[in-house]
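Marked as duplicate of an earlier ticket. Keeping the data here for the record.
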Amino acid sequence: MAAHAGVAARPPLRLALFGLPPALVEPVAMLAEILGWVVFEAPPGPAMLPPADLCLAMLPADAGAPLPPIAVWSPDKHLNEHISSHGLSILEQPPCIQHLEQLLQISADWP
């Protein structure tokens, strides 16, 4: 999609994945890329990462839970508030595709 004359194209949005299992990385990355996100996996351990607009990470598992939930956050405080207002700051595991798509769309539309 080309930008109109005099209007700068918005840089692609970046989604960082932290510690998601391989079986989950592929479908999350595929959906995000379809919606126009650039996806990268964070290396294990402390590392400097390129800036991200949105981050997904596995939370520690509860003793009785079959799978741990996924935390969602953004370096942008206002986007965090926006995500929380939609009830999407913690995703069930495995994530519901509709909630994941909604999360990526509302985050992409945030000014």
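See parent ticket for discussion. Strands lie at 13-18, 37-41, 54-58, 70-73, 90-91.
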